[in-house]
């Protein structure tokens, strides 16, 4: 729910400069807003509508449940392509990101899913990884990072992307296990260090080091000052090594307040729907969604979302005593989701 909340708050402000966001909505967003006419991605969307961050997280979570702790890469590629087809048919400009698009093009050309993600270094893996954090305990940390790597292999199998996704997943998972946010952020840094050694090499700053640096930058600052520092120094672009440290830095400011955490993250501009989605996922895992004033509006704007039911299924996978630490076989063909499977195949029209 925190992921969806941050995503919906950041829907109208995504891709806008921070000064435009400030001039239009104030220093910090106070409510859900519709997509403005001058935003080519979100114009026309009603207040509270989620974007690709939530949609793709739901797809990933459903496949993780269907695979009993594994994500079938070809089924994931197929679901993502069908999602984008629906977006195009509805006239939406909210389409697949550059790393995912490249990987799925290669899948269509017959390239093995073990090879298609070797260049994916943007924040797509981290934006949708929260369900893995729900479905896998934080300890042992190596098992969580294994699950993160496997879930993103088809689109984002680089050290940078795995590090960022592992950090978000660890932050979520540690919160579910009852750790305070400060400890969860330390586990996030540890997970990023482990993830950086996985996958293919691409040039980029060390994600774990940048998370630690971003946390130091905002420590002791007022929220207003911290937002300026995150905006000017950490960055809110598509790069994993910007978006993930930015999200966790904002999360650190609001360990007990999901609503304020998401409002501030969504006010950053840039790729702030993704930043706010990751912030919301991590903080929400620690606080729950109680006290958020717009939950009814969020649900009404996205009636197809069944996040509580999905969370329950993910927690069942998490608690399964017989789940192996590692599997080398994919689910049988009969286990794969299809158009006739019992999984929710969202045709949301946005």
Secondary-structure blueprint of this entry?
Elements: H1 2-10, H2 18-25, H3 52-66, H4 73-89, H5 98-108, H6 124-127, H7 130-135, H8 141-152, H9 159-176, H10 181-195, H11 207-218, H12 223-234, H13 240-253, H14 258-266, H15 272-287, H16 295-301, H17 307-319
Explain how this protein is built.
The chain has 350 residues and is mainly α. It has a single domain, classed as ADP-ribosylglycohydrolase fold. 57% of the residues lie in helices and 0% in strands. The chain contains 17 helices and no strands. It is globular and about 50 Å long. The C terminus is likely disordered.
CATH architecture: Orthogonal Bundle
Average pLDDT level: 89
Structural class: mainly alpha
Q: What is the helix/strand order?
A: HHHHHHHHHHHHHHHHH
Principal-axes geometry comes out as globular
Question: What portion of residues belong to β-strands?
Answer: under 5%
Percent of residues in helices comes to 55-70%
Report the major sheet.
Answer: none
User: Can you count the helices?
Assistant: 17
Uncertain segments are 327-350
The CATH topology name reads ADP-ribosylglycohydrolase fold
Cα-based radius of gyration, to the nearest Å: 18 Å
The top level CATH class name:
Mainly Alpha
CATH homologous superfamily assignment: ADP-ribosylation/Crystallin J1
Q: Got a strand count?
A: 0
């Amino acid at each position: 729910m925190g992921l969806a909340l941050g995503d919906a708050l950041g829907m109208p402000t995504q891709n806008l400069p921070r000064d435009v966001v400030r001039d239009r909505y104030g220093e910090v967003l106070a409510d859900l807003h519709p997509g403005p006419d001058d935003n080519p991605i979100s114009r026309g969307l009603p207040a509270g509508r989620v974007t690709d961050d939530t949609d793709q997280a739901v797809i990933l979570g459903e496949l993780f449940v269907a695979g009993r702790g594994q994500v079938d890469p070809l089924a994931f590629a197929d679901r993502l392509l069908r999602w984008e087809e629906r977006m195009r048919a509805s006239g939406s400009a909210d389409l697949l990101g550059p790393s995912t698009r490249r990987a799925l093009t290669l899948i269509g050309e017959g390239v093995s899913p073990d090879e298609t993600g070797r260049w994916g270094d943007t924040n797509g893996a981290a934006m949708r990884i929260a369900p893995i954090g729900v479905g896998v305990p934080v300890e042992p940390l190596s098992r969580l990072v294994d699950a993160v790597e496997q879930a993103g292999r088809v689109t984002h199998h680089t050290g940078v992307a795995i590090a960022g996704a592992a950090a978000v997943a660890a932050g979520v998972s540690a919160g579910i296990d009852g750790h305070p946010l400060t400890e969860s952020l330390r586990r996030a840094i540890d997970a990023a260090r482990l993830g950086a050694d996985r996958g293919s090499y691409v040039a980029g700053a060390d994600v774990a080091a940048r998370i630690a640096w971003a946390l130091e930058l905002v420590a002791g600052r007022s929220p207003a000052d911290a937002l300026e520092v995150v905006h000017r120094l950490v960055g809110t672009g598509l790069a994993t090594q910007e978006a993930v440290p930015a999200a966790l830095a904002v999360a650190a400011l609001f360990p007990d307040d999901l609503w304020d955490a998401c409002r501030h993250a969504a006010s950053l501009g840039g790729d702030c729907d993704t930043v706010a989605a990751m912030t919301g996922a991590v903080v929400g895992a620690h606080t729950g969604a109680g006290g958020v004033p717009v939950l009814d509006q969020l649900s009404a704007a996205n009636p197809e979302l069944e996040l509580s039911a999905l969370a329950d299924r993910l927690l069942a996978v998490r608690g399964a005593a017989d789940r192996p630490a590692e599997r080398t076989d994919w689910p049988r063909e009969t286990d794969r989701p299809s158009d006739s499977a019992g999984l929710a195949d969202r045709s949301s029209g946005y």
